[in-house]
């Protein structure tokens, strides 16, 4: 079965298989071709790691730490350049158009690579313009409501929304984000209608969910978990394939009847299209090695990121699968960027 057939027949199962296979690859050695095509690359020349977000977020923090480790492995400096804006597409556009010589990389996430391209006109092809290098990790989310909200289950929330169409609101970190897409997917699967309230970032969205200015949101686990554990938020479901060890009593979206609702925000590394294969393979090897570092594993745990790794092909397949999934959600919901 080819990738396109698998995606169309069972996108949720295919996505889980892609991430599972990538994670398994992290545990074993990778074959790496010699770098004859690039001579003595990187030859001590500085490599730029572009992050398409402001400093401080998990993509930036984890990316900096991975960049530092691959720089040490390659014997050169890897500097991080934050090129934020337009939901991550400004940084992505920059990398898409630079010389494909292995000296510029994109440390990004699912948004610019699989969601935003279906919401706005871009100057580049979000798949053809890049060479996938490696998955860094994934971040699950949870559907949370304020402690004083009456909803105890996802079914309660959906029933209330159907009884009061357009009255209940959900927060997100902004238009076109993975947090918005999950709310839209919930509407499409249940027929309930909610009001989407976009914020300038996940933090203010979570703050207003805590203040019960909105009824619910899909929040990154690391951000919401302390509030769930303190009783300020109630978790109705998680978007991962399995229940979380930290909240074993909270069901998955699949367990409450949602189809193909395994949604995890992935972080990954891409290079410009036509970057030499030997360079991509060497970068993939060094990134996979970095992800085994105990200090990096501990940092990822604090950020709520599950490190994955794997081959460049596994990243490419994952990007295509998620791009197809969210393209359909956006089209079916007539979702606009504004």
From TrEMBL:
Lineage: superkingdom: Bacteria
Alphabetized UniProt keyword annotations: Signal
InterPro entries: BUG (IPR005064), Bug_dom1 (IPR042100)
Signal sequence interval, chain numbering: 1-37
CDD domains found in the cross-reference section: PBP2_Bug_TTT (cd07012)
A family per Pfam: TctC
Family: Belongs to the UPF0065 (bug) family.
Family matches, as PANTHER family: BLR1237 PROTEIN, TRICARBOXYLATE-BINDING PROTEIN
Protein name stated in the entry: Tripartite tricarboxylate transporter substrate binding protein
């Amino acid at each position: 079965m080819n990738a396109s057939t698998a995606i169309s027949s069972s996108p949720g199962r295919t996505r889980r298989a892609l991430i599972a296979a990538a994670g398994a690859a992290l545990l074993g050695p990778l074959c790496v071709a010699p770098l004859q095509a690039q001579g003595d690359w990187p030859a001590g020349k500085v490599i730029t790691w572009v992050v398409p977000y402001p400093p401080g977020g998990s993509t930036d923090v984890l990316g900096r730490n991975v960049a530092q480790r691959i720089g040490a492995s390659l014997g050169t400096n890897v500097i991080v350049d934050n090129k934020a804006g337009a939901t991550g597409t400004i940084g992505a556009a920059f990398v898409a158009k630079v010389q494909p010589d292995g000296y510029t990389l994109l440390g990004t996430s699912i948004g610019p690579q699989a969601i935003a391209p279906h919401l706005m006109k871009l100057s580049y092809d979000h798949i053809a313009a890049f060479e996938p290098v490696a998955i860094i990790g994934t971040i699950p989310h949870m559907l949370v409501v304020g402690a004083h909200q009456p909803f105890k289950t996802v079914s309660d929330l959906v029933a209330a929304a159907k009884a009061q169409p357009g009255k209940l609101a959900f927060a997100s970190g902004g238009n076109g984000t993975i947090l918005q897409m999950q709310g839209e997917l919930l509407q499409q699967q249940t027929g309930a209608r909610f009001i989407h309230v976009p914020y300038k970032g996940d933090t203010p969205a979570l703050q207003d969910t805590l203040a019960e200015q909105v009824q619910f949101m899909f929040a990154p686990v690391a951000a919401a978990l302390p509030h769930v554990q303190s009783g300020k938020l109630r978790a109705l479901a998680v978007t991962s394939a399995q229940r979380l060890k930290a909240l074993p009593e909270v069901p998955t979206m699949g367990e409450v009847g949602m189809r193909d609702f395994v949604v995890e925000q992935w972080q990954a590394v891409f290079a410009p299209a036509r970057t030499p294969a030997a360079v991509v393979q060497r970068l993939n090897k060094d990134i996979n090695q970095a992800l085994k570092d105990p200090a990096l594993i501990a940092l990822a745990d604090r950020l709520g990121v599950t490190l994955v790794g794997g081959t460049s092909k596994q990243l490419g397949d994952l990007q295509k699968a998620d791009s197809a999934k969210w393209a359909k959600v956006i089209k079916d919901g007539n979702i606009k960027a504004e």
